[in-house]
């Protein structure tokens, strides 16, 4: 299955559009203006010929009002979880393009219940929202010098790859099994 086959309409493909033309970018902290994400998703659903009446995030906003202190970055995840469920009922899938940044690069695919797998865009993986990522981003501030350290590693190898890792200042950060040493707090 090719990415363009599931994220573009036949008309868009005939005009030579590519997947870049239907990507929605959202910072990890959320939309710039309320409703942008839902509007994008509704527009894509409409382009596939489905009724986007249920595609909105008002329920997520109402639920957030009942939760007095969601953490920074929690609300966008709630929106994406909600929209993923709505899209599944419409025969669509919310996809995330794993660009290795802290920005959500989102696409809507017409999948009719089939789980898309093995998709890539510009050589980077594209996967259904909520499915495990092939990589994990690990970041921390060194407890000795305060310098930020960041690793992007294959998920299956993360612990092994960090075993015995040290900061440039020489401070030990991980034990021999890849667990953070006392005093080392990973950014969440």
What does it look like?
With 188 residues, the chain is an alpha+beta fold. The protein has 6 helices and 7 strands; from the N terminus they run H-H-E-H-H-H-E-E-E-E-E-E-H. The chain has a 5-stranded antiparallel sheet. Strands 6-7 form a two-stranded antiparallel ribbon. A hairpin with a 5-residue loop joins strand 2 and strand 3. The radius of gyration is 19 Å and the shape is globular. The relative contact order is 0.13. The model has no long low-confidence stretch (mean pLDDT 87).
Keywords:
188 residues, alpha+beta, five-stranded antiparallel β-sheet, two-stranded antiparallel ribbon, 6 helices, 7 strands
Structure summary:
This protein has 188 residues and is α+β, with helices and mostly antiparallel strands. It has six helices and seven strands.
Helical stretch tally: 6
- Total number of beta strands: 7
The rough form would be described as globular
Distance between the termini: 34 Å
Radius of gyration: 19 Å
Main beta sheet strand tally, sense and closure: 5 strands, antiparallel
Q: What is the beta-strand fraction? A: 15-25%
Strand order of the largest sheet: 1-3-2-5-4
Helix content: 25-40%
SSE arrangement, N to C: HHEHHHEEEEEEH
Structural class given helices, strands, pairing? alpha+beta
Mean pLDDT: 87
**Unreliable sequence segments:** none
Task: Give the helix/strand layout.
Layout: H1 3-7, H2 10-14, E1 24-27, H3 36-47, H4 58-66, H5 74-89, E2 92-97, E3 103-110, E4 119-121, E5 124-128, E6 135-141, E7 148-154, H6 158-162
Antiparallel strand pairs: 1-3, 2-3, 2-5, 4-5, 6-7
């Amino acid at each position: 299955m090719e990415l363009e086959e599931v994220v573009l309409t036949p008309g868009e493909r005939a005009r030579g559009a590519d997947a870049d033309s239907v990507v929605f970018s959202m910072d990890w902290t959320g939309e710039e203006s309320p409703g942008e994400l839902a509007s994008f998703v509704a527009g894509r659903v409409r382009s596939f010929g489905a009724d986007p009446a249920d595609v909105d995030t008002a329920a997520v906003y109402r639920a957030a009002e009942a939760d007095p202190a969601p953490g920074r970055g929690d609300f966008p995840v709630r929106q994406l979880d909600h929209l993923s469920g709505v899209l599944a009922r419409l025969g669509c899938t919310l996809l995330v393009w794993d660009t290795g940044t802290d920005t959500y690069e989102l696409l809507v695919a017409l999948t009719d219940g089939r789980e898309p797998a093995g998709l890539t865009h510009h050589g980077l993986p594209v996967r259904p929202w909520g499915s495990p990522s092939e990589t994990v981003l690990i970041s921390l501030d060194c407890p000795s010098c305060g310098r930020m350290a960041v690793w992007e590693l294959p998920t299956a190898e993360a612990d092994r790859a960090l075993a015995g890792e040290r900061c440039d200042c020489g401070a030990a950060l991980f034990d021999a099994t890849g667990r953070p040493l006392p005093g080392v707090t990973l950014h969440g």
